[in-house]
Write a structure and sequence with these properties.
It contains 7 helices and no strands. Helix 5 packs antiparallel against helix 6. The longest helix is centred in the middle third of the chain and has 30 residues. The protein is an all-alpha fold and about 170 residues long.
Length: about 170
């Protein structure tokens, strides 16, 4: 079981890095399609970049839960926690390093994404292996709430730092 979980987490991290990176460009490639906007970044804001991890992780975790259905409730809870930690580590790491440096750097932005994905799947692995958390309804509800926020704030972003596109801020 542990070897299988480890493989799923490693493959999941690779999947999310590849699909998340690819999804960075899909909105423009789609001709700015509104449906694509729900799942892919529409600008360079930190909030929109959190989608790079969130949606590919949700997709992969759905597959992972199906394959590990005998451990469904605990894998779902661990996975949802991992997705939350990974998703919210993006702004945490980004604003931490930019507050120290005073600017952002493209390579550090990429490393922020990769580190956040690694944290997501490391959390899934550790929580599933060492803790017994079984609250899939709460975990899934929390993910659905965050997905709803992504959908809503794509078209109606609040006027605060996380939602501002730095390429359009004067």
């Amino acid at each position: 079981m542990i070897a299988m979980l480890k493989r799923f987490c490693i493959y999941g991290a690779i999947f999310v890095i590849v699909i998340g990176t690819f999804s960075h460009f899909i909105f423009d490639w789609s001709g700015k399609n509104a449906v694509v906007a729900l799942f892919c970044p529409v600008n360079e804001s930190t909030w929109e970049h959190m989608k790079l991890l969130f949606f590919p992780s949700c997709l992969y975790v759905s597959y992972m839960a199906f394959r590990m259905k005998s451990h469904f409730s605990t894998i779902i809870t661990a996975a949802c926690l991992g997705i939350y930690i990974g998703t919210f580590s993006i702004p945490f790491i980004f604003y931490s390093y930019t507050s120290v440096l005073g600017y952002h750097h493209f390579l550090l932005d990429i490393l922020t994404f990769i580190l956040s994905v690694a944290l997501c799947f490391l959390c899934i692995y550790i929580v599933k292996q060492y803790f017994y958390l079984s609250a899939p309804l709460i975990a899934i509800t929390a993910l659905l709430l965050l997905a709803f926020c992504f959908f809503l704030f794509t078209f109606y972003p609040p006027n605060c730092l996380w939602f501002l596109d730095p390429t359009h801020v004067s």
